[in-house]
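Our working data are protein records whose layout never changes between entries. An example says more than a description, so a record of this kind follows.
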Amino acid sequence: MTPLAYRNSANKYAAVHTESVVEEASPHKLIQMLMNGFLMRVNAAKGAIIRSDFEEKSTQISKAVAIVGGLIDGVDTEKGGDIAANLLSLYEYINTRLFQASVDNSVEILDEVQSLMREIKQAWDAIPEMYQ
């Protein structure tokens, strides 16, 4: 099997596995998965900037923006009150900064948004199972 054929097969397997995991995941777990995906995409974008691979940087930042869009869609401002409103504002700020990072090719801005998302994720991960 050629390296390309192997990679294609591995990608197909990974897609099926991911779809299976998503179908079985709780809403809480799905948010955790989105946050992990965001952190991975931002990390990949930082590497792309360092390598001067600006096409890959744009792809990864676009995926990170889409993930934040998914997180925004999951915020229930009616039930969540001020906490949800603040979280929504923070997600919108992160997206604004992602766009700026893309324009400026700024690893520093990506470090900032990655740090913000890690803080949100730590709080999310700390939610006791009984409230998930």
